[in-house]
Amino acid sequence: MSDLRLPSRNDLRQKFSSFAFIGETGLGGSRWVSDRALEANFRCLQQQSMEFHRWCESKDEKAIVEYFLKLWNCEDSPPPVRQLARQHIAAYLESPRYRAVTNRYHAFRNPNFPQETRDRLLYISGCLTSDTDKICQFYQRYQPDSSYSLEKHFQLELASQIREVFHAQTGQGKYSQWYALKSASDRKLQRGLTSFGITNPSLLDSCLHARACLFQVYSKSGKEWREPKPQHYQEAANYYNRHYLEQTEKGDRHPVTAEKFESWIRTCVNALQASPKICYFDSYENPSQLENLSLTENLLSQEPLEAIEEESFSKELEKYLAYFTKIMLESLQKIEAMPKNRVILFLRYGFGLSGKRIGQKISLHQSNVSRCYKKCQRDLLQGIAEWVKTDLQMDLKKVSELEEYVVAWLQQHYQTQLDPVLKTGWHKLGDRNQIALTQLYGQEIEVEDIAEELNETPHLAKKRIKNACSQLKDAVIAWIQVNLEVSLEPERKKVGEFVEKWLHRFYDRSFK
Questions:
Q1: Is the pLDDT higher at 322 or at 134?
Q2: Three-class SS of residue 33?
Q3: pLDDT (mean) for 438-453
Q4: In which band, very low, low, confident or very high, does the pLDDT at 29 lie, cut at 50, 70 and 90?
Q5: Can you give the pLDDT at residue 269?
Q6: How many CA within 13 A on the CB side of residue 55?
Q7: pTM of the predicted model, to two decimals?
Q8: Highest mean pLDDT among 128-132, 211-215, 288-292, 300-304
């Protein structure tokens, strides 16, 4: 039951006209069952169309898949023709589908209810292969010059989408509240706690420290983020008491209990779930809409009229995103007229370097660096604020966190300037390195499974991934050296963190 193994289909006609029959004993009980109507239709197309016949002779699966996809999506085609095309595509996707399910089954299997897990994954995969838009997206992302076949490409795409849907349904993976707690920055967590009503500096620090301590003793179990156990809270409380517990004026120490520690963690989780989401202003590709998600009324004492006014502001601002970007770019162009300003802003918002580290690179004191980027930020904020007040005729006192939108825009602006550099570097990595990065960052497959896919040892797979990331870091460092005339070699770790975040974003966009 643990494997959905099937014999291979070497005959091209069989690939487009047979479906899987899964037995309970793995390979011995599973087989391909041909659909006579699909077989007859495929044979008829071979006889009637010379072009289709050539595709079959040359085993051009890509051309045949594209042909059936066009028929399936053509509303002018007769319904029976569209239905046959749809079934041919479904038959072709049977093998990638079951291989994808097998891959995800080993990752998500519930040992207590393995059959339930398998049935859920089969249902998800069936829904995906019936979705013409999804299948067309998968097909369009296929690169004929890649090292793997079209079937393998569909398998990877389906495995990725199965993971997304399964995680969304079960609250696991990146949808897990524990993963969200681990990946949130201190600034984001502090903002969430403040919005949640936690304003006491001592309690804020306790919650931030508690989050750090928890993940010193707790991590995902296998490939799942499961609820921390009481022993995790006790071990984390002990860690907190050793490293963060403050003494009173009399020198007494009051150790934090596991129950108290757990209450802090629960507060952090609830605060992150309740905090508003900030989206970036991005006019380059896929422009985002400004989202201002309302907080639960029980969590905030916000007046209804204020909430309505802020929501109205967000909706109005959505209409002016292009103009917003134009104003920001015009203001930024004036600021960057001084070369040092561009270097400071790029290193600050692009890589998150501190004022001290930036100052060391351009021979300025950190206080001067800090004043410089804060002044630039204020100038940008003033320009956008005047536009909001003059053109939109809105009272800025009713608008919260406008400054954070400006900071987010700056981060997006400078980070996206490195997209072409990293994309070029990625294409130079080679097929096997690309497969390794795709499976690690795009599909969250364990290194051991990646090694098995590449037919090499886990040690070699880890080395391959490390070397590939190192090549991308070298590309970024070289670009910064040429364009900003500063060296980021001493900040190689920071550059590595930037590259990892970029890889996650890159694959998130690729697999959506």
A1: 134
A2: strand
A3: 82
A4: low
A5: 86
A6: 21
A7: 0.46
A8: 211-215
- Give yes or no for a contact between 196 and 271, defined as CB atoms under 8 angstroms apart: yes
345-361 per-residue burial string, b: 16 or more CB within 10 A, e: under 16: bbbbbbbebebebbbbb
Number of Cβ within a 10 Å radius of residue 69: 19
Residue 288 is predicted with a pLDDT of: 35
CB distance 222 to 241 below 8 Å: no
Q: Which residues of 437-469 are buried (b: 16+ CB within 10 A; e: fewer)?
A: bbbbbbbbbbbebbbebbeeeeeebbebbeebb
**pLDDT confidence bin for 306, thresholds 50/70/90:** very low
In the chain, count of helices (H) and strands (E)? Answer: 26, 2
Query: What is the spatial distance between Cα 125 and Cα 93, in angstroms, rounded to a whole number?
Result: 10
Contact 162, 100 (CB under 8 A): yes
The DSSP element (H or E) to which 435 belongs, if any, is helix 431-437
How far apart are the C-alpha atoms of 453 and 435, rounded to whole Å? 9
Question: CA torsion 375→376→381→387, rounded to 10°?
Answer: 120
- Is residue 291 classed exposed, middle or buried when 0-12, 13-18 and 19+ CB atoms within 10 A define those classes? exposed
Cα–Cα distance for residue pair 318/324, rounded to 1 Å: 10
